[in-house]
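pasting for the record
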Amino acid sequence: MSRSSTRDRGSSPEAGSSSAWREAAGLTQVELAGRIFYARSTLAGAEIGREHLTRTFWQRADRELNAGGALLAGFEDVDALVRGRHHRVTLVQARQRAALAPDGCGCAVVVGRWSSSDVRALREAMRLPVRAFADRLGVHVGTVTAWESPRRSVPIALAAQETLDGALRLADPDVRTRFAQLRAGPETRID
C-alpha cells in the first residue's frame, strides 16, 4: 500500500521516526540523502538519534518525505529539550563558579569539564579572534569552531581539555578575571 493511501486513512509512520517515513516513501538512505543534500552517514546518524542536526535538515527531510510537519515537529520538541538542558547546566555551572570564586578574582578559576560556552569565554577573555586563538593553542581553526558550537553533542576530548586548561593556567590575571566574568553570564557582574 502506498504511503499516500495510508495517510488518507489517518495513520502515519511512527511519530518521530524518520526511518519509518523514509521506508514508507520507498527510499534508501542514499536516495534520501541525495535529495536533501546531506551525506548518507549524516542521515543514518539522525535516524538512530546519534546526530543532533539543524532545522534545515529536518525541513528538507519533512518536505521530501511529505511528512506533513511531523519530522519538523519532532525536531522542535527535541531541540527545546536540549536547549532547556543546556540552560539548566549553565545555571548550575554559574552557581558553582560563584561559590568557588566569591571575591571575583579569576585567579583560582578551574574548569571541571570544558563546554562550548567555556571555550568561547576563554577566547573572548583573551580578546582573540578564532584564527588567532587556534594558532595560540596549536589547533586547526575548524577545531575551535567545533569546540564552540552550541549544538555540540560530544564532550570535548580530554587531551583538548588539557590544552585549554594550560591556556587558562598561563593566562594573565586580567584574562582569568574576564574569563570568570564571562562564564558567570551577562546578568552576573563581578566588579
